[in-house]
Design a protein that fits this description.
By secondary structure, this protein is α/β, with parallel strands linked by helices. It has helices at residues 9-21, 32-39, 58-67, 85-93, 106-124, 154-165, 173-181, 190-203, and strands at residues 2-5, 26-29, 46-50, 76-80, 98-101, 128-131, 134-137, 142-145, 148-150, 171-172, 210-213, 217-220. It is 42% helix and 21% strand. The mean pLDDT is 86.
């Protein structure tokens, strides 16, 4: 999922349409408030930010993203009419991963998105995620609790990784099914429940960090 904050409706809809037509899921938002409301529900793979927004501008939103534990590592591309070297340096210094100046071609946007996602994927391949005594190493495909190995199936590992990538965020059962089992998976939501149950059991006492969010789904990041 890619989020795009842009107050110009025509530009916003065109970029979202282009991303969707090239195989990405995308949603547009007219201001930062709407963007952060969506971020509280799910974590996107990438955020596109316009600088000139009503209320908080793009730079302020970028700082908020980088200051929050839940969003600091989400890749961000700035899309803006401000093209001076000062603005570009300021955006990159604040933590932007790339910078595109208006007017831009749609294929340029798609190309930059692909490039940033490729770089991010390479970084993720070596990442280590932690929550309490739980540690997951992507590169070695290893999970430990208090330093002791925990043997997980492929799906259990993918499920734990996704929860850790979205620490503190409630994920619905449908979101888990889409991410872990694929868009064409036609099983019932109880599949997610069963895997959460076995994951908790294998994590032992640390299983309490995988919380049930009543009426929503699950999240990791606290003691249930």
């Amino acid at each position: 999922m890619i989020y795009y904050a842009e107050d110009d409706k025509s530009i916003r809809e065109l970029v979202v349409y282009t991303l969707q037509s090239t195989g990405y899921e995308a949603r547009g938002f007219e201001n930062g408030e709407a963007l952060f409301e969506a971020l509280r529900q799910t974590r996107p793979e990438l955020v596109l930010l316009d600088i000139m927004l009503p209320g908080e501008d793009g730079m302020q939103l970028l700082r908020r993203l980088r200051e929050s534990e839940a969003t600091r590592d989400i890749p961000v591309i700035m899309l803006t009419a401000k093209g001076s070297e000062y603005d570009k340096v300021k955006g990159l210094d604040c933590g932007a991963d790339d910078y595109i100046t208006k007017p831009f071609g749609m294929m340029e946007v798609v190309s930059r998105v692909r490039a940033v996602l490729r770089r991010t994927k390479r970084r993720e391949d070596g990442e280590v995620y932690r929550c309490g005594p739980i540690e997951l190493n992507v590169k070695t495909h290893r999970v430990t609790v208090d330093g002791k190995n925990v043997e997980l199936t492929y799906k259990e590992f993918a499920l734990l990784k996704y929860l850790l990538q979205n620490e503190g965020i409630a994920l619905t059962r449908d979101m888990l099914l889409e991410k872990i089992w694929g868009y064409d998976f036609d099983g019932e939501t109880r599949t997610a429940d069963v895997h959460i149950r076995t994951l908790r059991a294998k994590l032992g006492g640390a299983g309490k960090y995988v919380e049930t969010v009543r009426g929503v789904g699950y999240r990791i990041g606290g003691e249930g």
